[in-house]
Amino acid sequence: GLRGRRAVHRQGQVLCRRRLQAQCAGGDVPRAAHRRGTMPPMRPSGRDTGFTASYRFDPLTNMQFTRDQQITTNAGLVMGRLRSVQRQHEVQLMRFCFDKLGLSVIGCIEAPGYLEGGDYYPAGSGLAFLGVGMRTNSAAAEALMEKDLLGTQRLAVVHDDFEKCQDRMHLDCVFNILGKDCCILAEDIIGADKPFRRTVDEYARSGPGQPYLKTARSGMEFSAFLISEGFNIIPISREMQLEYGCNALNLGRGNVLTCHAGAARVIARSPHFTGDLEHVDFGSITSMYGALHCSSQVLVRNKSLIMRPAVVLPDGGIL
Predict the structure, then answer these.
(1) Pick from 71, 95, 91, 67: which is nearest to 81 by CA?
(2) Less CB within 10 Å around the terminal CB: N or C of the chain?
(3) Averaged pLDDT for residues 77-101
């Protein structure tokens, strides 16, 4: 009955209190365990509960920004390595999800490399861009080439050597590809005379399985490199860029989403853009330091790299 349950509860409190006293008298062993995180710290509560405990966990507060934990190249999915300590568990979670979905991961970036997806842009079957600066580093670029994880003949490494500003931590903060010959670029980094300019080192290989080598086009100013590749540049003002004017989402076939009304008007008025543009309200996400491109991810670029066969569930759904 109730009296018996109360007696059991009191006995449990006594046992817990004795256990706590034994731990406190045991010297450094419990404290070492606390430091390792193998058990929660406990101390007497001075009331009927017997003891109090505190717990620590690492919340995944940036998981809405699914661009960064990995990149999807022409070769397949590559897991990144995030620069911020508080975000490193995100890579493990995304890998778990990919395994559940039956998606193959072809490689991962290990120390000393750092790779964040906001720094990566594919540009067709033969070229990819990779920003190197505050987040992604040169070691990651080298690993992608050495491990043959790109699936392209060329890699353009875009260096942020002169600015390194948190508001422009990734390449997708200042640059975006809207079509096969159209891109947007932050206005104040266009030109070799601009103090915040980016420079490009181009690497190329002669064929599959061959090593990537730096070409004679290395050291070019970024906008000059883009023009040489046939891109028409639509400049975006610094004010618009700081409000995620460049962080649009290219859905393919000329369809683009943007969350900045001013940038949308600039793009729509440009003769270089011939697709369809839609503005969406994304304020709840931009308030957390990211936008449309940051909050999305492409999982398959090459249709030959397809997932496992679909499974029909008992209720008729498809997994």
Answers:
(1) 91
(2) N
(3) 95
How many Cα atoms within 13 Å fall on the side-chain side of residue 203?
20
Task: Give the pLDDT of residue 40.
Answer: 60
Instruction: Give this prediction's pTM.
Output: 0.81
Q: Which is nearest to 69 in space by CA: 61, 86, 81?
A: 81
The reply to whether omega before 195 is within 30° of 0 (cis) is: no
pLDDT range class, residue 23, cuts 50, 70, 90: low
* Average pLDDT across the chain, whole number: 88
Strands 255-258 and 276-279, sheet pairing: parallel
Q: Which pair of structure tokens corresponds to residue 249?
A: 């989402």
Dihedral, CA atoms, 107, 118, 113, 298, nearest 10 degrees? 0
User: Checking phi first, is residue 259 left (phi over 0); if not, alpha (psi -120 to 50) or beta?
Assistant: alpha
Name the token pair of 254.
């000329």
Separation between Cα atoms, residue 240 and residue 189, nearest integer Å: 14
The single residue listed with the structure tokens 């994880």 is: 149
